[in-house]
User: What shape does this take?
Amino acid sequence: MNLCTGWEQHLERWLSPFLDALGDKRRRRWAPLYIMGLLLPGERKSMQPISSRVAPEDEEQIHHFVGTSCWDTEPLETVLWEKCDALLGGESSYVIVDDTGLPKKGTESVGVAHQYCGALGKQANCQCLVSLTLARSDIFVPVCLRLYLPKAWAEDRARCKRAKVPPTIGYRPKWRIALDEIDRMRDAGMRFGCVLADAGYGTCAEFRRGLSERGLSWAVGILSTQNMYEEDVKVTMPKPKKTGRPRVHPLVGKSPCAAERFIEQHAEFGRIVWRKGTKGALSGEFAIVRVRPADGDQTRDALHLPGDAAWLVCERFSNGDRKYYLVNLPASASRKTIVATIKARWACEQGHQQMKEELGLDHFEGRSWWGLHHHALLTMIAFAFLQTLRLAENKSAA
Assistant: This one.
């Protein structure tokens, strides 16, 4: 972590609107200290090591500020979004939806369950945070970390009460959390034109449909088994019957087939260069074709009607592996633009890694809902400050 000369004074000025949003005099004192503790060198960024570095005589107060008190995060989130929008916002910016796992032992930490943990690449005991990252070009900043509460937790109100989960918080699937947070950010004035996500979100038709209804472009991963129709497939209503019940189910001209098979039948692979990197041109092999995904209403034959037209993309790697994507960019979009949009998603993984390695996102040792979200928010604020410094240094060096 490289901090420029005089960063402490810069941090004090930069945090001023956050402290105004906090209001309470005591919180205004502890917030800068905790954030400074996240920024300073140290192997552990949990509350006790942070306190020992920045306020050794006030460990109990810092623990109360982060882990015990129930102050609302929304005013500080609004300030963070305003700053991040000023830094990166615009119609050419992306919001990248993903989740990140925080490995945990025991059963009492809020939301902990045996579930897939991306940090370990397997099923494990962990907490799972739905993550949203604002990105433009090669610059990115995490703007939302919201805990996914598994059904077993949400339905156990006694357990939730012990972990200080607000009574208004119930079960929401990850895609629903992501859409709700996108709505909150847009209501706060954050600007972005496209949403990116992996197959964990992209396979969900409700998620894609929700983005489209909000007027957003999207590029998401899907499974090779997702059914597709040809773009010009015909959907008609059957002729009325003279007797008996009227026919109400539309008829589709052709049956759909899996994305993997559709690519083999309707597209050819070609090498596409999507941008220049530090080590030369970035390129890969892609097959791209217009389709209508089978994610509409279900028919009498248990098939789904065609949805809105989109681009089906298959990426073929040198080892033979393949990945599949759906992109709702317009039919006029170039292949380079389609691939560059898909490839912009790498930024969220780098952001997660940096927040964990540099700022201790996964070091929090408390058990409560509020404590986890306080720590996550203060970590994002620290990261946004670092990105502000880095951009200022790059600009002055140019």
In short: The first strand starts at residue 94 and ends at 103. Residues 218-344 form one domain.
